[in-house]
Specification:
The complex is a heterotetramer.
Chain A: E1 2-3, H1 12-25, E2 49-51, E3 56-58, E4 65-67, H2 77-82, E5 89-93, E6 105-110, H3 119-123, E7 129-131, E8 146-147, H4 149-152, E9 164-167, E10 170-173
Antiparallel strand pairs in A: 2-3, 4-7, 5-6, 6-8, 9-10
Chain B: H1 9-17, H2 47-60, E1 65-71, E2 74-79, H3 84-95, E3 99-108, E4 113-121, E5 132-140, E6 145-147, H4 157-167, E7 170-172
Parallel strand pairs in B: 2-5, 6-7
Antiparallel strand pairs in B: 1-2, 3-4, 4-5
Chain D: H1 2-26, E1 31-35, E2 46-52, E3 55-62, H2 70-74, H3 82-86, H4 94-109, H5 115-143, H6 147-168, E4 177-178, E5 181-182, H7 190-213, H8 216-222, H9 230-236, H10 241-245, H11 252-255, E6 268-269, H12 276-300, E7 320-328, E8 331-339, E9 345-351, H13 353-357, H14 360-365, H15 373-379, H16 384-388
Antiparallel strand pairs in D: 1-2, 2-3, 4-5, 7-8, 8-9
Helix pairs in contact in D: 4-5, 5-6, 5-12, 5-15, 6-7, 7-12
Chain lengths: 174, 201, 434, 389
Amino acid sequence: MKRIPSTAATSSASGMLKSIESGSKHLLIKRFTLRYPDQKLKFTGDGYQFDPKRGVGIAGSRGRHILFHDKCTGCQLCAIACEGIAEAIGMVKVDEQWKQNKKSIMPQIDYGKCVFCGLCVDACPFYALYMTDDYELSSFTKEHLIYTPAQLAIKPKYDGNVELKIGDMGATHG
Amino acid sequence: MTSEPKEKPIESSTTQSSPSSTQPAKPATQPAKPATQPAKQEPESPPFEKEIVSQILSHFGNDKIKVSYIRPLRIKISVDPSNIVEVATFIRDNLGLDHAEAVSGTDYPKDGQIEVIYQLGSYSRDDMEGHIFSLATRTNRDDARLPTLINVYKSAEYHERETFEMLGVYFEGHPRNERFILPEDWADLPPLRKEFRIRGR
Amino acid sequence: MATAPQGFRFGNFVGSLIWLILWIIIIVSLIALPLIFVILFYVPLPPVNGDVLTPYLFLSMMVDPTRTLPIVHFIIHTELFRIAVFPGFSFAALMAAVTIFVERKFLAKMQLRVGPLYCGKVEGILQLLADGLKLVSKEIIIPSGSDKPIFWTAPIAYVATAAAVVALIPAAPGWVGANIDVGLIAVFAILGFFPLIALLFSWASNSKYPFIGGLRALHQMIAFEIPFFLSALSVVLLAGSLNLTDIAEAQQPYWFIFFLPISAFVFFISSLAELERIPFDLPEAESEIVAGWLTETSGMIYGLIQLGSYVKVYALSALFVILFLGGWAGPQIFPKELMPSANATTAPPLLQLLTLQGVFNGVTVSAIFWFAIKTFGIIMIMLFIRGINPRIRIDILLHTGWYKLIVLTFINMFIALALIYGGILGPGGLLTAH
Amino acid sequence: MAKNVEPEIEDDLNKKLAIQIVKESEDDRLMRLSVGPQHPGSGHFRFTVTVDGDYIVHCDPDPGYVHRGEEKMCEYRNFIQNIPHLERPVIHDSSNIIYSYSLAVEQLVGIEVPRRGQFIRALASELDRQIYTLYWLAIYGIFLGHSTMFMWPTADRELFIDLMDALTGARVTHAFNIPGGVRNDIPDGFKDKCLRNIAYFEKRLKEYEDIFYNNPLFRQRTEGVGILTKDDAINLGVTGSVLRASGVPYDVRKAEPYDVYNEMDFKVQYMKSGDSFARSYVPFLDMKESCHIMRQLLDKMPDSGEVRAKLQPNPKGAPGEAYRRVESGRGALGYYIVSDGTPKPYRVKISVGSFRNMIALPHLLVGSKLADMPSVYWSLNYWPVEADR
């Protein structure tokens, strides 16, 4: 359990030579940087989802939400789950008539407040609220960050396809 | 847990937690269920911890020390503020508990008291590495004063200072009972007292 | 979700641009053009092709650029051109700009990132221009309680001192701003001004971190000045001259670095300390004293000091090349015949224009080429050292300067003396070119 | 053992404290420097140092610039809602800071985590430890002026952030370890990717050793600087890598193994010199050991099974209290939770390594040089946000 690690104590000259060797070696290694607007990372799965029957989530990126209007019952469980966390979800009236949603209320999410923890997805028992890959949500005004149920219903397009590659010349993105 | 009633686990907890007690370094992955009552409700205490407690009890006697619970790797005893320096010195010198991991206070407005609890641990004794010894004391809420333990446990210095500003417990003998984490112009109640309410909640 | 900021109208934007252009036209036509003509009338101008340069002739040059050749020729031979443009400040500033850009890209490559990438489309080539524009347009903040005259003067003095060093450095045979016999001593004397400026500026800033930084700069300077001089002293012993051109030409067959490797090493280390570059950038150690003596700088004050320090990088690298690497010595890179000589009139006008009527002849171009290559190599070594080393501590630095480097220089000085007394080098030595 | 060293240490420390207070007012030579909260070498933390020439004669830490009142906030939220805000103090190491919270809540609520869930959350916490330590190492590099050492760990940290992204869906603040297990199972192909990245990372560690730890200039700056002796370390109650660098082989994963750590085969890395070099080298050795642990976790993980115990939406803790600890990137991280039988905790106390290590800062800085300040300060593995909570 107890051992003294070998510190590889070297004289200053050989230490400096090793530094020089290591530094010059890296002039040949591929660059690591992800050139962001041109390249986008590929994510695992299709966004974070939750299976209420098994009580376990499905791995995926936690971007903005997607709301399935045909499944949402207006039960407010997501809003209740968010209550002590970010208070980003508010229930609003929608002009749609669904037979499972008698009150016609659906969640509206303020992404200025959302912390993307996904606990609202865990709270939804009707497979109505999932998360997607879309994380580019910036806007000029705070009002534009509030997504109405109609906006949440749209499935975002995300075309990231760059993966971390590891080869002999070091790790690189694309 | 969905169907489990709240009242049930008291008996089952004591039976479940005891087998793991033979090895002090064993993981407490078993759900060591909480004791709702003080230690006399847990008849089968782990022997190593029990022996430690009996050492303290034999030195000080039952009237000075009140054992709250004995669980695997966790012991909590409560003492009177007047005895705390004496007990802490004894614990440090004879049991090898050499540092304080945390000092925290809990406000009990119903009892009119504040409980200050020192979580003590040991780096120097191999067989007590995983143990946390909780030394608790209670003081009056309105005039909260306690003797400081920094002469016994140097490591408690900043924790006590934090407890002073968060709960308003004045530590007599502490060189700096003053603001530490809160802003310079903090003029409100100590924030961890129960009557300090966060706005809007 | 991208929307334009509120209250933005494209028409207003275009309108403001037109308004700006209008003002520029008004100012140029009312003030600048009359000024130019007044100057042209009253200032005696050089004769061009036998005629005195008149405003009419001046305007006709715009139609036929070849007519400007004599005037360009005249300007090139002035002292001002040498000091301000070619071996002097502009050349050094260009090298400094290249150094800054190369430093960023080179370190980025070493650190597995890309460096400047977007500005200028091709690998961020215009990033420096953008940074410069940013610095020019930024507000200059003067701390209250500062000594304002010194605070304003110090950055200008810093650049001016750097330019003064550069003026003494020859870049090719005959191409030097001031060819004086005590060139090396003059260089060291001027270099002694930098810590003084740093200290004055730090004192004028009226702040604690600059003060500590200024004191550190002074300590560092004093500790490294002596090994710096002494390492150059052995070169002077071998060359038998203090004139930098003479020193460069004295090492014609064999460069001094072969005889004086220890001195070269000490000189290089000392110049790193002189330049306040990692691992010796203690006066600007940002994790200890914020930015050292640069803490209160902002806007173009910071820009000028950065420019000055990179010009200094060029100056000291060039000095290293002149003292140890044989200056501009190197093989002729292309035949001399290809370049028209000074008197050639047979060459086509375009080539005449390019070679400035033989001012830059083949030998000069080759010398400048080798000189630039060597200088840049030294600069690259400095950048590489920055990439692999942390900052040194002040007491280790002082210890290194006072105890180790001085001793090392003496070792090499004795070697140099032995070489001279042994008749191998020095005036009339075996290996000296005659 | 405590008996024979205690009195002199105590005297020594008290004397030091007395000197600090007197010196501040009397002497004119002294200059008081403020380090932080906007100083490039402090983070969200302020401490004032008084220097006499180049020597520090007094140091007074002043934390609290990022105090969020996490402990008070906990009292207003139920056990599940507390998770997202509790991981804010250390967003890189959020799996660990939630780990001990989950352990304590599980003890109070009385649930057992499925075995596969235990493995996955141990894996997540090891990955987060790597992410944190690499970030720490990067900052240590730039504190000493080594810009390359800032960039390499920052880049290589991406290897593990990538894995955490695939596992949890978020790059930082994962909200992944929750009372009762983990949020989701590992995705397909995760194991291979993880092994590949670990193998590459171990190669990279050699380069760090070459360019940073064996660099003579780095050695000169850190060796013999800010020595914390073993007795002082015990007495001041420091934890984590600072403690282990002073010669106390203490690791909560060994001392009090939680979840599956008693099945893991690993060594507690420690050094005896107790200087800045040891404090910076022990996390490096920990990273190596952590790679080793991760391989074992992936190897021994059951192929299938539940990952999360069923927990009702608003769980109630049984009345009582619990104190559970884990080993985080900065040392022991304990939660003391008092429950009164309601869905909300009655009192939550977070005992963090950074706060415990802060006491060593004045102890080490007084008497050392101003130039040693960054190397001593950041070697204490101090994360200001976590200390403020």
